[in-house]
Amino acid sequence: IKELEIGSFLTPPFPREWPDTLRVVSWNVNRGLRLDGTIEFLQSSSADVILLQETDVNARRTRHRNIPREIAQALRMNYIFGREFEELAQGTEASPAYHGQTTLSRLPLSNPRILRFGGQSTFWRPHWFIPPLQSFQRRLGGRMALICDITLHGRTLVLYNVHLESRGNDELRIGQLSEMLAEIGKNPAGAPVLVAGDFNFDLSRGSAATLIAGMRMDNPFTSFGGRGTVPNHARPAAIDWILTRGVPSASDPEIHESVTASDHFPLSLELRLLSPQ
Fold it and tell me: What is the pTM of this model?
């Protein structure tokens, strides 16, 4: 079973140089259950780079559609899908269903790889008895980061599309965050890095903020003061984030609270990779 699916619907003219700014969107799209609304927002965002979490491939709940491929086709973009889980209750042995992260771009994507975290929750593992509730999903796999590069004119931006554990405590998530930061530390000093996704906890305070600061990473969304990124919660939950390192500037962070196509709000910002001359 392939862990990666790679494709392209990009049409000419193909980009030959870095744009002045990159518009970035990160969004947990809740499997792609409201695909039309998801595509509508992404088209209106005019994003150059999109990092999506919770995208289905061949799952019963999303009518056996290939959500990453359909989004890429509608947006005319390159895409990479990384498999997080095989969803055992959503497919069959002959026609399995998958779930994971998707990274899309109008720029060339290369060197895709998966960082599967060593620390994982046991919640999703198949057990001898599973209550007939949606929350008890039977899965094979584990939380991970989908990593790939964008390289133009000899300059590389490394993208980390992240989904940390929703079941378990912050100690588990801190462990997964630490694994990812250790991986980021293997990049050359000063190399531009973008990290985005659903972290399932608040990165603006406590141990998480200390770890991020120790890696000299910037968190443009701390300016929102913990404003929620998920609707319909009893209290605001700031769990979706975009982080940068080695980037001259990241500006105009925004939480798109009017978008209702998922159980998370999309995040966006403008990224400048090249310093003004």
Answer: 0.93
